[in-house]
Amino acid sequence: MRIYKTRSIAADACKNGRVAMNGIQLKPSRTFHVGDTFTVRKGPITYTYRVLQLTENRLGAKLVPGYLQDCTDPAQLELLELARMAGQSGRDRGTGRPTKKDRRDIETFMSDSYLDEIDFDEDEE
Fold this sequence. Notes:
The protein is α+β, with helices and mostly antiparallel strands. Helices cover 34% and strands 17% of the residues. It has 4 helices and 5 strands, in the order αβββββααα. Strands 2-1-3-4-5 form a 5-stranded antiparallel β-sheet.
């Protein structure tokens, strides 16, 4: 359903434990039923989708919302926006490739442990 660009990338994501349903990792051959809800981890973000309809054929991108509903938590989408903003502000265009230190800093930022240290509830007061 166009969550991943190719089937082989989707199969690799399943084999590496990035696709789950009810906390259970899925195999690439798993069949879905209408109403199933599954999660997909892409980077620091966990997307949640619900199956609305099934199809036998590959779909155009414009038709996907009729078959899948995006149920992703708004807090996860905020993480995506934060990562997007951090990527834009870090390096100036034309300054070359990141150094080893830059790469380590980026990996630390994108890791789960770094995100666990941030208290997102402070803004709700």
